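Protocol step 6 of 9: fold each sequence in the batch and record its structure tokens directly after the sequence line. For illustration, a two-sequence batch is reproduced in full.

Sequence one:
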Amino acid sequence: MKLTNLRALVAAIDEGSMRAAARRLGVSQPALTKMVRELERELATTLLLRSTTGVLATAQGMVLYDRAVAADRELAHAVDQIQQLDGRMTGSLTIGAVPLAVMLLVPETLRTFGRAFPDIQLRIIEELYIAQLTRLRKGEVDIALGPLPEHLPSGEFAVETLMPIDMVIVVRKGNPLGRARRLADLAQAPWVYTGANADSGYAKTLFENHGMKPPPAGALVNSTLGLLSIIASGNCVGLLPHQIAVHPFAAQHLQVVAVTEGPLQLTLGALARADAALKPSVRHFMAHLHRAAHHLSDPLR
């Protein structure tokens, strides 16, 4: 199975058009069609449904698409790692980071890492909830930067502990729920969940830590703007890192609810797959993150 043929299939599915896929890969449309046909003959199946409006992957095509994307990504990682082990610090790094890390740690890390390794391209993807570590396990990000999940599998990840986080309860300014003094007072309120689904997320963790049933999900988001907008314009309750909740932008619209149980205490850390941690650029970026966190906790040093 040729890598060029797999890339042709990926481009066709991504673009939804053989013509656009050929343009993306810099080949003629007949040449790209031939590549996909070779795959279909090799596998004795149909990978694409063709019509006058474009192409659509079959179920078989999507299975191969997912594996081809993952294989191409792993090969790119291998090329980067080999070059870096040979002393050529080039390539790219993709970082999945929660908003607090983007606000407090990423700018300083980018400054120092970028100065030391100017030929490595950095891409930052914001995520509100990283506990499932899906992107990290799939290789879509090289480093996940956020609250460390509990019960991490031993040996699967390289972990760098960075700083503590207090997740505080917030509501819209003027919301009567702002007068709540116990977590139980908020148990029936609609909460904004930031996990992959309503069965996960920090709100669930907060309530379960105090032996309580998780509150109802009023909304499920994975966007900082979405989270702030929903809480600021309605009656939903949510959790935010204390530093973001008291930031002037957020404080214009939100108020912190001081319950007797206190905030949800988490630890911000950086995780990389154990195999990816062998990549020099990953090791160096983790070290620069650690320095940024140390600088933040002791700026005079």
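Sequence two, same batch, same settings:
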Amino acid sequence: DVDRDSRMLFKATKGLSQNEVSIVIKTLVRRTYRQRQETKAKFWELYDKELSEDLKSQLSDDFAPVIDALLVEREKFDAMTVHDALKGSPSAEATLIEILCTRNNRALEQIKKAYRDEHLNNLEDDVRSETAGQLQDLLLGLLAGDRDESNQVDEDLARQDAQELYEDEKDRWSTDSDSKLMSLITTKSYAHIRATFTEYEKLAQTDMLDVLKDELSGEFFVAMVALVRCLKDPAKFFAGRLAEAVSGSEGMDEDTLMRIVVTRSEVDLLEIKRLFKDQHGQALAETVEDSCKGDHKKLLLALIKGNKGS
């Protein structure tokens, strides 16, 4: 009930004791993204206030990034994340791939509009000013929104594309924006790309990631590895991102941790947590319990434990 949630949140923010903080956490975490957006709209209708800003004004600064992830419109939040990555946030290439390769064509258009509204500049123009070479070509190709979104795979066509990719001059992969590889990964459906990579690996008798390691370098290599891992097994990719986020040399990357937990909570977080435990040797909730120091830890843990498992 969005009306009840709105009134409960309004009442809770008037005097944030530990009990009221718990009410805020439970109310936000138990709702889906769509329900939270409806509650935010009802809160504005009832009180003429922006719910996220009202909460952030009452809670400690540690809560702000999580509140944004939970309550900011998804396309606006993605645009904020892309902007930060272009300006040099940690693991920027993987973050850009994380966003651009897990959003459909319609979502990409919404992200570009939100970016333009927020930053008064086209996202593509900022990509051109902040990146160069094949990384720039890759990002612009992904942002074009020209991807085939069908789930059907023509096995003959996948074998043909794999053969052409195998016969393509590999030095073109790191220099030419119109190489077979670039065309494949920016326009074909994800199902078709996966099938093509499977056929390619049969021809090359090696893993696609090993081929990339031999042929590419620098930022483009980092981005392509992230892209291939994301395409092959999204849950495993995100589990790896979480493992990197909690064990970085400069401390926990809480922005990445929070973003993945929130954006994948209604997609595949249960599987991500299982794979994280396999990779990291410890449950995600236990890792956050041990390593996260801010007041917002309860909110993060509630999000993580919102799915069965930990």
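Proceed to step 7 once all outputs are recorded. Observation for sequence two: DSSP finds 20 helices and no strands in the chain.
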